[in-house]
Amino acid sequence: MRRVSNGAIGTVTVVALCSGAWLLGSGAGTHAPPQPSAAQAARSGQGGEPRGAPALPPSPPDRIRIPSIHVDAPLMGLALTPSGSLDVPPAAKRNLAGWYEAGTTPGEKGTAVVAGHVDNADGPAVFYDLGALKKGSRIEVDRRDGSTALFSVDAVEVYDDAHFPDEKVYGAADRPELRVITCGGGYSRSTGYEGNVVVFAHLTASR
Known about the structure:
The chain is mainly beta. It has one domain (15-39, 52-206): Sortase (Sortase, Chain: A). The protein has 2 helices and 10 strands; from the N terminus they run H-E-E-E-E-E-E-E-E-H-E-E. It has helices at 21-26, 166-170; strands at 61-66, 71-78, 97-100, 110-116, 119-120, 123-124, 138-143, 148-160, 176-188, 192-206. The strands form 2 sheets. Strands 1-2-3-4-9-10-8-7 form an 8-stranded mixed beta barrel. It has a two-stranded antiparallel ribbon with strand order 5-6. A hairpin with a 2-residue loop joins strand 5 and strand 6.
């Protein structure tokens, strides 16, 4: 397993999110979730990163909201499994996401990681529409200290499992950043989803 600098999360972080049980039951591709377009990918060679808001002190998150895709979900803490991959929220709880609680908390300096299911056997789950998110969209994370961290989406990308860029996704950052991850890409009836949708965002304000 490949390791990265932010909390040793390996590339199998979201494997358990990706079975695609709903697509198996309804016919592969019939209800495929939206995938990000090339226009939402990060662009290189256009200057430095946009300036963000000052980092917040560490505080565990309790809830994530993404208004443009109607996400409003509680967050549970996720730990590593014995094999070293990130555990996942219970599949039966469709409107539940998780954050890697041994890593950066959303809003403090560094890269915070949130993951959730795209679907389960009964239908769409919390991050089903993540691939439809656009640059500039707002992500709100309520924190246990009573503050809300506000993030702006910088890019939405999809990667197949064989070319997942560990360091780009999980690597340490010099400003408060957030990654939101679910399954996506191609789909196989035998193995489920063959990749991941990753949202890249940075802190722009807090309240």
